[in-house]
Amino acid sequence: MARSIGDDVLALFHSLRSAYAATPKNLKIIDLYVAFAVSTALIQVVYMAMVGSFPFNSFLSGVLSCVGTAVLAVCLRIQVNKENKEFKDLPPERAYADFILCNLVLHLVIMNFLG
Amino acid sequence: MSSPETASERTVRHAFGNVLAFFVLLLIGVLAFSIRLFSVIKYESVIHEFDPYFNYRVTQFLTKNGIYDFWNWFDDRTWYPLGRVIGGTVYPGLTLTAGTLWWVLHSLNIPLSVETVCVFTAPTFSAFASWATYLLTKEVKGPGAGLAAATLLGMVPSYISRSVAGSYDNEAVAIFALIFTFFLYIKTLNTGSLFYATLNAISYFYMVCSWGGYTFIINLIPIHVLLCIVTGRYSSRLYIAYAPLVVLGTLLAALVPVVGFNAVMTSEHFASFLVFIILHVVALVYYIKGILSPRMFKVAVTLVLSIGLAVCCAVISILIAVVASSPTKGWSGRSLSLLDPTYASKYIPIIASVSEHQPPAWPSYFMDINVLAFLVPAGIIACFLPLSDASSFAVLYIVTSVYFSGVMVRLMLVLAPAACIMSGIALSEAFDALTGSIKFQLLGFSTENSQVGVGDASPDNAPAQKNAVKSDASENTLKDRTSRKNKKKEKERGKEEQGGQSSLQSQIKMRLQVLPLESSIIGVFLLIMLGAFYVVHCVWAAAEAYSAPSIVLTSHSQNGLHVFDDFREAYAWLRHNTEVDDKVASWWDYGYQTTAMANRTVIVDNNTWNNTHIATVGTAMSSPEKAAWEIFNSLDVKYVLVVFGGLVGYPSDDINKFLWMVRIGGGVFPHIKEPDYLRDGQYRIDSQATPTMLNCLMYKLSYYRFVDADGKGFDRVRQTEIGKKHFKLTHFEEVFTTHHWMVRIYKLKPPKNRIRGKAKKSKSKASSISSSKKSTKIKKNPWL
């Protein structure tokens, strides 16, 4: 029983890895960017836990900028993914332009709120 | 169905429709603007009510001193001696909008005064709001429904009541921002474009700047997202519509000084974060489901559930501990009074005393949304046929706004756009069905021919139909990971055949939906009559019920129109006959008007942020003359202002508000006990009144020398003669009473220079007696 569960878990990881290896390179780059943004956010939270949250607006803007770019990158990935039937007639340049615009607005707000 | 029509004819018809829609929208804008001008025509271009005067004063400051001074403004002419940080406690959207309009007009060399811009801001933005309603309803149902909804919103009395020309309040721009934000959200949901998501966040920022009711948006949209997830309508467009909005929206909301860190720390925003997390979990689940085989997916699910459940329990218990540690569970008083309608009357008398915060009576629904009240259920049904993301949002919006409008009369305003959208949809569907059947009956012979043509083509369609069925089946058996080329080819073939199929099916459906000709014509006629009744009611409501500026009153007598301009008379007297630094005390209703028009420092005003300060003034008004003088003297007050309606029959005077003074004062200072003022459970001012009532400052200041006015001292509001008719004031002197005795201003008498011998001895004796009494008395008057 336990062995079958362990085997199942191993088989699960193998299938996940093989399925993920089959995704195109541009999507993998976006996923890497998302992972980088989320890890930066986690580092900031750990730092805040150690040092205290005094300029709270700086902490908030830092964490939310990481989370925000991660979310926007995921949106870009959704729109650029060729397997996604809903966005098949959206040119990837348009998706990228929207991504840039939204990031500009986000970072303008961040710069303002950073103090 | 449209087989005889060529492509060019269709484009001409579409172009004609678009031009017609444009002109109709222009007319709707003009209608929305002009129906709100009754108060300017009947009275004058003046700012109404109480709150708009504060906004007007802030706008004056902004236009005179610029935006940096506005953000850093500390106002010391109100809430003396505390002052008020205007930059951090006001919602800046309205004043910034009006200030920008004024600045733009001035740079174009159109010299409109600030007051004119302020008075006409609300009608302008109501025109924009009806255009926004058109856009929103177009996304939900179609352009026909959009035009109907826009027309209804331009005239709905509930919205008119808060946006007449002169009602310069937050709701004037906030309703436009609300509808526009909802429109952009639905547009993002329908198209999945990140561009509209950015615009949505910016529009949400404008809404946060404008009104405290923005919490309605940030709670309604997460509920809708949750509804979509739960009903199986999750799609990637939903993620794009919601996730950027939460992040950008929270940041932008934290930028506004009034909200600040409340954007992440109060319970009003927790729903959005919770749904944000849930959405990510669901998105991850769908993604993994997409790349794994079903068996592997089941293994993943069991593994994640067993680990995740343990982690979840830990996190939730921590969260509950944090939230339960705060006494109100993190909610603000106003939000709590919305969720629990009885909360305010039990705990916060200030919120309970505002007349706008009372629950509405049934007739006010028919007064405020009239015909829409029974078009709304038809609209809800029409939204379900067929149900899309946008129409489920509309249904959710109407249901929640109906609940909240039942809690507070003021929130009927949020119900109005929802009711207009639903009614617009209902009217449009009804007209579609009726005019479609009329067209079908009258032009029946032409469609018969086209049907024969399609019938000939049906044998060709039959083998195509079989192919379509096969291709459907084959699509179902294939897994998602087939090559994309195959899928595309099959899809195109399937679409063509289904195109031919569906036109036949739609024709059969049309035939079944046709109504008899006579009933269709009568139905159209009756619907138009319904619209006519609605228009008549709206114009009447705008002209008679909602256009009173409440600072100027009129009455019709045999001699013609009689104008009561007492308020402005009193404020002008104060402005011209007192020193600039003199402090004026009155009940908090008149604070904004006094600072704006009389330009004097006040003790309390309509912002009501400090309950103790208001209770101090209330205690002073309920105390005998000497005690009141002590209280006012400690606050450096020079003049006291009371509003008295007994001579002319003005019902909203201070004697009628007196019960709130007693209750609020008694809430903080226990020596004011409400039963002392009641006889048989009622507040009375006639000969049956209690001695405490007859001796309190409010009674004395209202009825001083009242017998000299008409000889008998008959109070027209309370419809009795007053109890104590002849008395003198010992600590106050009357300095001004307006023409109709509506506003009376008194000055505090300075303390006597010398205390004569006998009085000195008795005073020292009294102090020694009172010091020995201190130990025995528990409740002591802190002011003596």
Automatic annotation (TrEMBL), chain A:
Membrane topology summary: Multi-pass membrane protein
InterPro entries tied to this protein: DAD/Ost2 (IPR003038)
UniProt-listed Pfam families: DAD
Annotated compartments: Endoplasmic reticulum membrane
UniProt pathway: Protein modification; protein glycosylation
This protein's UniProt keywords: Apoptosis, Endoplasmic reticulum, Membrane, Transmembrane, Transmembrane helix
A GO BP entry: protein N-linked glycosylation
Chief localisation class: endoplasmic reticulum
Membrane-spanning intervals of the chain: 32-50, 56-76, 96-114
Superkingdom per UniProt: Eukaryota
Coiled coil ranges: none
Gene Ontology CC terms: oligosaccharyltransferase complex
PANTHER family in alphabetical order: DOLICHYL-DIPHOSPHOOLIGOSACCHARIDE--PROTEIN GLYCOSYLTRANSFERASE SUBUNIT DAD1
Subunit structure comment from the entry: Component of the oligosaccharyltransferase (OST) complex.
Family that this chain belongs to: Belongs to the DAD/OST2 family.
Biological role: Subunit of the oligosaccharyl transferase (OST) complex that catalyzes the initial transfer of a defined glycan (Glc(3)Man(9)GlcNAc(2) in eukaryotes) from the lipid carrier dolichol-pyrophosphate to an asparagine residue within an Asn-X-Ser/Thr consensus motif in nascent polypeptide chains, the first step in protein N-glycosylation. N-glycosylation occurs cotranslationally and the complex associates with the Sec61 complex at the channel-forming translocon complex that mediates protein translocation across the endoplasmic reticulum (ER). All subunits are required for a maximal enzyme activity.
Protein name, UniProt field: Dolichyl-diphosphooligosaccharide--protein glycosyltransferase subunit DAD1
Protein's organism: Trapa incisa
Lineage: Eukaryota, Viridiplantae, Streptophyta, Embryophyta, Tracheophyta
Automatic annotation (TrEMBL), chain B:
Segments for region (Disordered): 454-503, 754-784
GO molecular function, one term: metal ion binding
STT3/PglB/AglB core domain: residues covered: 581-640
Keywords of the record: Endoplasmic reticulum, Glycoprotein, Glycosyltransferase, Magnesium, Manganese, Membrane, Metal-binding, Transferase, Transmembrane, Transmembrane helix
Compartments, record wording: Endoplasmic reticulum membrane
Bias type Basic residues, positions: 754-764, 774-784
Enzyme Commission code: 2.4.99.18
Oligosaccharyl transferase STT3 N-terminal domain ranges (all copies): 19-422
Main location: endoplasmic reticulum
Pathway linked to the protein: Protein modification; protein glycosylation
Protein name: dolichyl-diphosphooligosaccharide--protein glycotransferase
Originating organism: Trapa incisa
Source organism phylogeny: Eukaryota, Viridiplantae, Streptophyta, Embryophyta, Tracheophyta
